[in-house]
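thread: overnight batch results

M.L. [08:02]
morning all. the overnight job finished for the chain we discussed friday. pasting input first so we're all looking at the same thing
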Amino acid sequence: MLRTFLLLTLFCCAYTAEPLKIGLICSGSVTDGGWNQLAKEAIEQVKKELKAEVSILQKVTQDKAGDELRAYAADGYDLVIAHGYEFLTPAAEVAAGTTMKIAVSGADVARPGIVTLDFDVSQASYQLGVIAGTLTKSGKLGFVGGAPIPSVKACYRGFLAGARAVRPDVSVAEAYTSWDEPVKSKQQTEAFFAQGIDLVYHDVDAASRGVFEAVKERNARNPAKPVYVFGCVADQNANPICPDHILASAVIRLDATFRAVAESVVAKTFAAGVVRENLQRGTCVAVLNPRLIGTILTPEILAGVERAGKQLVAGSLIIPGE
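M.L. [08:03]
and the structure it wrote out:
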């Protein structure tokens, strides 16, 4: 197994005599520009604010996660965040035999002994859909995800609902490729463009590079009929590959969630259950590309996004489930 271990240590903790020891387990590269990199940056912020001792494991496979969790427990760690839906089962198995606290990111179901962190990006995705439904010329949109897991499917449903709220006849093609193979995501995005799709929303982590490359190359070939893309999880609006064609990103503010979990361990209030993060809590939000505000993103579009956000927060607008 390819394993990279990063150990970040400070010598005191703001809350206890000994520094809080936190482990982070990631399924992919912490330089993926998305889900895993966001977790690394969030836990480093927690380390700074709480003066904790933090270690990060990347590219951990599901079948090895249990061993890594047990190793953390043996090393006296107070908390481990297993960052990925695929870690839910091994985390629950390990939790039954340890006093170490375990949280699982990206899971939406409760398991005994662990905290699951459900990031509902469907609402922010709805707001992106409002933009897409307003701007599309062809009435054809595309969504490419890394895998059809619940959190990714929720992004698709939100995007579809938002687009159809402003243009009922719009279609949203749906495809799933890979989290870390840019070639596959690029090929899928190119296939979308060949079908007449002019706006694409992705949730593919490191494979997003392929999506952005497809957008850049398509616009270079046919600048008169531009295509656009939406980012996901991290704020990807300034990605250097095609910064003028990334309309907005659906962003998860992981640092606030990770800090809250860590503080609950310090305060001895950590309790098993599901923590639901969403637009209402200000942790899953739509961030528009400032480069495009006032031009492509007109005042009317901004008003539509804001209106949808208020309705979602108030609960007067509900995104359909599966």
